[in-house]
Write a structure and sequence with these properties.
The structure holds 2 protein chains of 2 kinds. Chain A is mainly alpha-helical. Chain A has one domain (4-362). Helix content of chain A is 70%, strand content 4%. The radius of gyration of chain B is 34 Å and the shape is elongated. In chain B, helix 14 packs across helix 17 (435-442). Chain B has 2 domains: 56-244, Penicillin-binding protein 2a (Domain 2) (Alpha-Beta Complex), CATH 3.90.1310; 311-560, Beta-lactamase. Chain B contains 20 helices and 23 strands. The N and C termini of chain B lie far apart (104 Å). The chains are: A mainly alpha, B alpha+beta. Chains A and B meet through helix 11, helix 12 and helix 13 of A and helix 1, helix 2, strand 1 and strand 9 of B.
Chain lengths: 366, 614
């Protein structure tokens, strides 16, 4: 029943990369939670993150057991399940910061929008694996994927969580572009987007508008988001070439960097380890992403190939948006840095993603 | 074609993946260059800023909305106060610095440390308020020793100032510092630790309007936290101003007349329910609460036998006494048990159910009609009327007149009062209603309880022809530029359960009580203004027949409460007043003169001023 070749083909290199990033992440988190603060809560969060990592690892192992090709067969079931969770979060969800994003199941708080990302990638991979063609997709073939994207997008934006909703579109858009669409179709869709953008804008909540405006002009909100960006830039810049040293970051204190253990954690690394430290993390992420593409490229099964590409894309966008945000290249949206930022939901989601990648990689022989 | 097999397909696939890799490479190069730009090209500059922890956020307190009276006279203002603050990060040895500071300004070390401990750990860079509103002497010392006190600075911030000490204190209310529990709730998103919020009265009820919005600035500071440069500022937005219906001059007169007494005065504009006066004595100085009231002062207020912390106009309940005869007369007339011509004979007492019920006038009033009975406040007439109407019908009329329930004034803790019914007694005491008890009820003694405000609303309705208004305090709310944010229109809550004929009879009786030759309040008569009113004397302690003590010998706390309710001018009233003096004994001698003084000031003086311009 158990195929020896699975062990032989196991992608130890990728596994090592995951561990490397995870370890770097814990190191930064430790510093972020410890510097300038000696309360007990620090260790609690650190321990919690370790627990999340352990739990994520177990989830990853469980996913390795399933043949990824089975995901193709049950993709609609997974999709429907996650949509169900999104609907129930709107009804029973826990309020936090003005929006309903979490579901409480037993003691665990889960964020269904995170799981939805994976479910959508699986479903899209399943659809595209049969409709892919060298000439590109035409309109008719894009109807089903469009519906698959629209349902969760509307539900998530209603929580409201525009950031995650847009991330979902970015991932789906990247996958679609990757499998190629007809040039004509591409032009028309771009045209439609340009026309409807003002409409979308008017549908945004005031705070969402102000975030985007603040990104374009940080002076608009010098006390809120603009202040975070300035402090984050000071932290990163002051790291200079070699950094101030582990646990020596001075910007890394509560009132300077809000959310410095979650979304703004990169500035802690950049401050303490300088350009050298942060470029190493960038390099490791880069290798990680290429590795993911390589898994996708080597997979002989079309579903698996697109699925692996989709997961890699998901990680890519998170890295890009988060790092871009702390350096003032992107608006301030709550996207965590994979394996580094504190937080359970994204940790589990990412681990599920890595599990799928490893899964595809080790079943590449058939 | 789910599997790639042909070479052409493989090439195509390769091309897609190379495209994707190039995209990723491009993004990472962009990120790297951005990092290099921040850390190398601008690194020196940012390192400098971070060394000084230089760029900080300072919050700027907004100034609270002002409160004006009906004639646009300022009642509640803000004044600048010097608030002592500390930024822990800059303070170096915190305890040593605080110790030094404590010696300079003569404040116990422990008191100063308390606020630091309360602020908790998270606030290394946020200023913590050590002491609000320090004196000018303390300010001078702190400024002189500025360099010995690292991390300590003084913020000049607006602080509440109640211009007229003790005036309308119960109505206006006071402020208190927000506590850490309240900070955690999302009820006050704009408030920071060390700030004050409304704790009582209008200050509390209109907190959201008065509060305003904090501003802030990004500043560059040096290593001891002193500001070098202001980078950006967002100005705070002042709170909205309130325009009250209150008449400051009249309020002050009422308070002066109540000065050595305990009690309440309420004056209402009968045409719209505007509160002109809402006084309760003893009062308190609201300024004492700013920056935290001292334990000693707080205890003195709490244990004062005059109960200064209670707003007697809305929170204290008294038997309505003879003022209740208005209700009894109305009920008996409406239920057709009596008419304008019905007379009763008063020999000075009524023998009912083998008990003697006495009239206040032991010589008796003789044959007396309802108008005369109101004029002379004859108890026997109303005993008989009450018996005919019955307790439950009486209660129905009282409730219809707005008694036994809140008037709906926008102040907290308004009391309901009490209008007893037979069902109520059964429930409360598990006893049946005794017929004799109806007699006490009919003249406003017994279980009945009303607040001075309820009586004011009632007498205003009698005066204006029967319309009950919800008492209005805040007329308009305006922003700093005078733009109206909210306008409160007069609100009718109901009508008196009486026909015009009935009301005319009652009003005639009330007019005679002041203007008539035998009226109980004839002593307060004014030359050119007709007043209509009713006195009342609420028993606190029943004197037995064989008790030889005179009233004036009774202990203060056992003496009767004095009531007077009235409106003037009797024809088209512009003011309705309810006065209650605790242990004032006689309505006519202690309560009524207060009302007369107010009427004189409110109606007569403006007339004279008109005739004799300054």
């Amino acid at each position: 029943m158990f195929d020896r070749r699975l062990i032989k083909n196991f992608d130890w290199g990728f596994m090592a990369l995951i561990f490397l990033i995870g370890t770097i992440g814990l190191g930064i988190l430790y510093s972020a939670l410890t510097a300038g603060n000696e309360t007990i809560s620090v260790h609690v969060l650190f321990k919690k993150q370790m627990i999340w990592m352990g739990a994520g690892f177990i989830v990853m192992m469980i996913i390795l057991m399933i043949d990824f090709r089975d995901l193709d067969k049950i993709n609609l079931f997974i999709y429907a399940f996650c949509v169900g969770l999104l609907i129930s979060v709107l009804i029973f969800g826990q309020l936090g910061g003005g929006s309903r994003r979490w579901l409480l199941i037993g003691f665990v708080r889960i964020q269904p929008s995170e799981l939805m990302k994976i479910a959508l990638i699986i479903s899209l991979a399943s659809v595209y694996s049969t409709s892919i063609s060298q000439t590109g997709l035409n309109f008719r073939k894009l109807i089903k994927p469009a519906i698959l994207c629209a349902i969760p997008f509307v539900l998530i934006v209603n929580q409201p969580d525009l950031g995650t909703g847009l991330l979902l579109l970015l991932i789906a858009g990247s996958i679609t572009l990757f499998v190629k669409v007809e040039r004509k179709v591409l032009y028309i869709i771009s045209g439609i987007c340009l026309v409807t953008a003002p409409l979308l804008w008017s549908g945004l909540k005031t705070y969402q508008k102000s975030r985007i405006l603040t990104f374009l002009d940080p002076d608009r909100d010098p006390l809120g988001a603009g202040y975070h960006i300035i402090q984050s830039k000071i932290a990163i810049g002051s790291g200079m070439l070699t950094g101030k040293g582990f646990l020596k970051g001075t910007q890394n204190a509560l009132s300077f960097l809000p959310e410095h253990h979650t979304d703004f954690i990169l500035s802690v690394l950049a401050e303490e380890w300088g350009l050298m430290g942060s470029s190493i993390l960038l390099l490791v992420y880069f290798i990680f992403l290429l590795w993911g593409l390589n898994i996708a490229y080597n997979c002989r099964n079309m579903f698996g190939s697109i699925l692996a590409f989709g997961i890699t894309t998901m990680i890519f966008w998170q890295i890009f948006i988060n790092i871009g945000m702390v350096m003032g290249l992107m608006p301030v949206v709550g996207v965590p840095l994979p394996l580094v930022s504190y937080g359970g939901s994204s940790m589990i989601t990412n681990m599920v993603g890595f599990g799928i990648l490893l899964n595809i990689s080790m079943r590449n022989f058939s | 074609m789910t599997e790639f097999s042909k070479k052409q397909d493989r090439d195509w696939k390769k091309q897609r993946f190379i495209g994707a890799s190039v995209c990723i490479l491009f993004v990472f190069i962009l990120l790297f260059f951005r990092l290099a730009y921040l850390q190398i090209i601008r690194g020196e500059e940012y390192r400098d800023l971070s060394k000084k922890n230089a760029v900080r956020l300072k919050s700027i307190k907004s100034s609270r909305g002002l409160i004006f009276d009906r004639n646009k006279k300022l009642l509640v203002d803000n004044r600048p106060s010097f608030n002592l603050k500390i930024v822990l990060e800059d303070a170096g040895e915190v305890k040593a610095t605080i110790k030094k500071l404590g010696q300079f300004i003569a404040v116990p070390f422990q008191e100063l440390m308390e606020s630091i401990e309360q602020a908790g750990n998270g606030a290394v860079y946020n200023p913590i308020t050590l002491k609000n509103d320090i004196s000018r002497d303390q300010l001078a010392i702190v400024e002189a020793h500025k360099f010995d006190l690292p991390g300590i600075h003084i913020d000049i911030e607006p602080t509440r100032y109640y211009i007229y000490k003790k005036t309308a204190a119960h109505l206006l209310g006071y402020l208190g510092q927000i506590n850490s529990k309240e900070l955690k709730t999302e009820k006050y998103p704009n408030v920071k630790s060390g700030d004050s919020i409304g704790r009582y009265g209008i200050e509390k009820q209109f907190e959201t309007y008065l509060q305003g919005k904090r501003g802030g600035r990004q500043v560059e500071v040096d290593s001891s936290g002193r500001i070098i440069k202001i980078l950006r500022t967002i100005d705070p937005v002042a709170g909205f101003d309130l325009n009250l219906t209150l008449d400051l001059d009249l309020q002050q007169t009422a308070e002066k007349l109540l000065e050595d007494k305990a009690g309440a005065v309420v004056a209402i504009d009968p045409e719209n329910g505007d509160i002109l006066v809402l006084a309760s004595n003893p009062s308190f100085d609201q300024n004492d609460f700013i920056g935290g009231i001292s334990q000693k002062k707080w205890e003195a207020l709490l244990f004062d036998p005059g109960k200064p912390m209670i707003n007697k106009a809305i929170q204290a309940e008294y038997p309505p006494a003879s003022t209740y005869k208005i209700i009894t007369a109305m009920a008996a007339l409406e239920e057709k048990h009596i008419n304008i011509n019905t007379t009763a004979y008063c020999p000075g007492f009524l023998d009912y159910g083998n008990r003697i019920y006495r009239c206040w006038n032991k010589h008796g009033h003789g044959n007396i009609s309802v108008i005369q009975a109101i004029e002379q406040s004859c108890d026997v007439f109303f005993y008989q009327a009450g018996i005919k109407v019955g307790v439950d019908k009486l209660a129905q009329y009282a409730t219809g007149c707005g008694l036994g329930k809140k008037t709906g004034i926008v102040l907290e803790n308004e009391k309901n009062g009490l209008i007893p019914t037979s069902a109520w007694k059964k429930k409360r005491y598990r006893e049946s209603w005794q017929r004799g008890e109806t007699l006490s009820i009919a003249i406003g003694q017994g279980y009945n309880l009303v607040t001075p405000l309820q009586m004011a609303v009632l007498i205003a309705a009698v005066g204006n022809g029967g319309t009950l208004y919800r008492p209005r305090i805040v007329k308009t709310i305006k922003d700093g530029h005078g733009l109206v944010i909210k306008k409160n229109e007069p609100e009718i809550t109901g009508g008196l359960p009486a026909s015009k004929e009935t009301l005319d009879i009652v009003r005639n009786g009330l007019l005679k009580a002041v203007q008539g030759g035998r009226g109980t309040a004839r002593r307060i008569r004014l030359k050119n203004i007709e007043i209509a009113g009713k006195t009342g004397t609420a028993q606190v302690y029943g004197i037995k027949k064989d008790d030889k003590r005179e009233l004036k010998d009774l202990k203060y706390s056992l003496r009767d409460h004095a009531w007077f309710v009235c409106y003037a001018p009797a024809k088209n009233p512009v003011i309705a007043i309810s006065v209650l003096v605790e242990h004032g004994e006689h309505g006519s001698s202690t309560a009524a003169p207060i009302a007369r003084a107010l009427i004189e000031q409110y109606i007569q003086l403006p007339l004279i001023k008109k005739i004799l311009p300054e």
